[in-house]
Amino acid sequence: MKSTLRKIIGTVMAIIMLATFAGVSAVAQETSKDDENFAQAQASLIPSSNSGARSIVGVWNVQITRLNCVTGAVIGTAPAILTYTLGGTMSDAGVQVAPSLRGPGHGVWSFESAGHYTSAFQFFRFNADGTLAGRQVVRSVIDMGDDGDTLSNTATAQILDVSGNVIGTNCSTATAARFQ
Prior knowledge:
By secondary structure, the protein is of the alpha+beta class. The chain contains two helices and eight strands; from the N terminus they run ααββββββββ. It has helices at about 1-20, 35-45; strands spanning about 60-65, 75-85, 90-95, 105-115, 115-125, 130-145, 150-160, 165-180. Strands 1-2-3-4-5-6-7-8 form an eight-stranded antiparallel beta barrel. The chain is globular, with a radius of gyration of 23 Å. It starts with a helix and ends with a strand.
């Protein structure tokens, strides 16, 4: 009996010690690319001695230029803030629309190759009376500058109604500088 009790107490103590001292790891989002590409993106956070290359991870001050998708004519410009986080998620805060008409943007980004990324984010749109108008989904192709502190992108946005039907398309380009 004493031997069995000792084994049970020993097992319970081992479990308690394991739970107490083991590192806990949580992943916010699985990557959609293979592990090698994700590892390359993480490794690029460390500046290289010969190129200074850095990852997209960080906060960026962005200047967006909205374009007519057919003619390419400039419609207007506005600032935004984009935040790319380790693990492949991102957030957006834009000022082209009043905060009462637009929710915060949330999305994902992917490492494609050295200095090249893609991203997609979405936000809710609201009518002036506060009712839901739908969503907007923005997809971008991003090129990092050689200095690692600037980037440019080309984006297309689909405007969706509350049923998910595409009711419009926006096009834009942007330049950005890393917030430091």
